[in-house]
Amino acid sequence: PIVLVQEADPDKGGGTLQALRGECPDDLQQDIFEQGWTHTVWMRIEEYQRVSLKTIAEAVLLCSPNYLSQTSLPLCVPGEPESQPLAFAKDTMLWASPANAGAQVLAEEIATTFAGLIVSTAEAPGPATHMLLYLNEDSFSDERLAEQVKQARKDKLKIVMAHENDPDLGGCLFSKFFETTPQELIADGLYKSLARSCFPGRHHPVSLALLAKDLGATPARSGSVASMRRLSASIAEASSRLVRSRSSATITTAGDGSGGEATVSVDSEESAVSVEAVQEHV
Q1: CA 266 to chain centre
Q2: Do 162 and 196 contact (CB within 8 A), yes or no?
Q3: How many other CB atoms are found less than 10 A from the CB of residue 250?
C-alpha cells in the first residue's frame, strides 16, 4: 500500500497536493494520485500530529491480515483532546461580530459540539465573556472589525483567535495577517497571543476541541449517557436564565453536546465537571 503524507509547509519544501502532483513524473501520477490511497497532511503541532500518525497507522493496519475485512479502525490515543467529552460549566458567551465574516459559522459549530456555550451575533459584545477573532484571507476587509478588536482589547474582553487553514474557506499562511492587519493592532501586540489553527478533514475535531478549551471548556466525567444528559440539562437551564437576563444580544445555545461521544472514558485523573459544580458556578 501507499500512504500519501503531504508536507504543506512551504518553508519545508511543501505545497498544495495539486502542486506536488505537478512535480511528479507523468508516468507515475495515475498510480500515485488516482488510486484512492490514504492521504494525510503532516502536522508538527503535537495534538494535530497525533491525527496524522493515526491516519498512517490505520492505513497500514488495514492492509494486515487481521484487518483485511474491515474498512476503518477507530484508533484512539489516551488524553487526545478530540476524544474528551468537553462542556462549559461556567456561563460563557462568545461574541462573533457580523463584521468578521466566517466567525459566526465557526462559533456556532463550537456551540453545537460542546454543551453550555452561548453565541452572540449582536453588533456589539454586550455581556459577552469572549470575542472570537476568525482569521482568513478576508479578515479586516470590513473596517469595523479593527475598531471592534481595538475596543475589546481596551475593555479587557478575552479574544480567542482562530487561524483558518482550509484554502476552500480562505485559509492562508499566518504571515499574510501581518500585511492585512492594521499596524496599530500589530504594534499593540495582538499576535503575541496564540491563534488556534483550524484545519479541515480529520484534523478539524482537534481544532474545535482546542478552541473550546481556550474558551474555558473542561473535561466532564462520562460514565454514562444519562449523566452527560443531566449535566447538559443543568447547563442549558443556566444558559436559559442567562439568555432571559441578556435580551439585548442575539444568541444561540448549544444542544446536549454529547455528539456520540458521551460514552468515551477519560483518565480518572482528568478534571471532572459535576452537576453540583454547575449549580455552584451559575
Answers
A1: 20
A2: yes
A3: 14
CB 170 within 8 A of CB 102: yes
Which positions ≥6 away from 39 have C-beta within 8 Å? 3, 4, 5, 6, 17
As a whole number of angstroms, the distance between CA 139 and CA 133 comes to 9
pLDDT in tens, 203-228: 999 999 999 999 999 987 654 344 44
Yes or no: say if 58 and 75 are a contact pair by the CB < 8 Å rule. Answer: yes
- Dihedral sign of CA atoms 61, 67, 73, 79 in order: negative
Bridge partners of 111, per DSSP, are: none
pLDDT of the residue at 107 = 98
CA pair distance 167, 113, nearest whole angstrom: 23
pLDDT for the residue numbered 133? 98
Q: What does the pLDDT read at residue 225?
A: 40
The pLDDT > 90 percentage for the chain reads: 71
Are 209 and 79 in contact by the 8 Å Cβ rule? The answer is: no
Taken in order 202, 203, 206, 211, is the CA torsion positive or negative? negative
With a cut of 50, list the residues of the chain below it in pLDDT: 223-236, 238-282
CA-to-CA distance for 239 and 175, rounded, in angstroms?
38
Contact 60, 40 (CB under 8 A): no
Question: What's the pLDDT at 239?
Answer: 41
How far is Cα 119 from Cα 108, in angstroms, rounded to an integer? 7
